[in-house]
Amino acid sequence: MEDTIFTKIIRREIPAHIVYEDEGTIAFLDAKPATPGHTLVVPKKQVRNIFDVDDETLAAVMRTVRKIAPAVRDAVGAHGAHINSNHEAAAGQIVFHLHFHIIPRHDRSEFSFWPQSDYPPGDAAAIALKIRQALG
Ligand code: AMP
User: Fold this and answer.
1) Which of 29, 40, 95, 136 makes an SS bond possible with 17, Cβ 3.0 to 4.6 Å?
2) Number of domains into which the chain is organized
3) What would the 3-class secondary structure string for 95-125 be?
4) Residues of the domain holding 10
5) Index of the ligand 1 atom closest to the CA of residue 16
6) Among 33, 37, 26, 34, which residue's Cα sits nearest to residue 4?
7) What is the CATH number of the domain that holds 67?
């Protein structure tokens, strides 16, 4: 896997507002925050996204997300947070190094993240069946 901008942050080759670091993960402020305090949690190991990450690396990242989410929330006086992650370009991934966004939320009316719809009759059952089949 090629280096990304996050590799450069991990190596301190470019500046970032780092808020936490341990052996396997690092967290820093997103340069273009959805809301103030928007923080990214990144494994130091170079993995592209959920489709190639191993359990241990993902567990380390989620441990860090759980550890720092309350600190991010409290630092900006928020009442909640999105824990969001984009996987592949089709889903909006721009930096192809796994990361989780912690986006503090003060109020539900600030913005809405994704639209919702209703399934046509029968579609939900058919899709659920295909997912179970894909799982083997
Ligand atoms: P994604 O669309 O999930 O791949 O999001 C990548 C995120 O990385 C975006 O929210 C960017 O604002 C953020 N980002 C890109 N470059 C940097 C950087 N040098 N420092 C901090 N955040 C960055």
Assistant:
1) 29
2) 1
3) CCCCCEEEEEECCHHHCCCCCCCCCCCCHHH
4) 5-135
5) 20
6) 26
7) 3.30.428.10
From the CB of 86, is ligand 1 less than 6 Å away? yes
How far apart CA 93 and CA 98 sit, in angstroms, is 9
* Claim: this prediction has a pTM higher than 0.90: yes
**Catalytically active residues, by annotation:** 99
Residue to probe by mutation, ligand 1, list 32, 35, 42, 83, most atoms within 8 Å of CB: 32
CA distance 81 to 102: 6
Q: Are 19 and 27 in contact (CB under 8 A)?
A: yes
CA distance 46 to 78: 31
Please give the number of the atom of ligand 1 that sits closest to the Cα of 94: 4
In tens, the pLDDT along 13-54 reads 999 999 999 999 999 999 999 999 999 999 999 999 999 999
Q: How far is the CA of 94 from the centre of ligand 1 (A)?
A: 7
pLDDT, tens digit, for every residue of 45-82? 999 999 999 999 999 999 999 999 999 999 999 999 99
Residue to substitute in 3, 5, 9, 29 for testing ligand 1 pocket (most ligand atoms within 8 angstroms of CB): 5
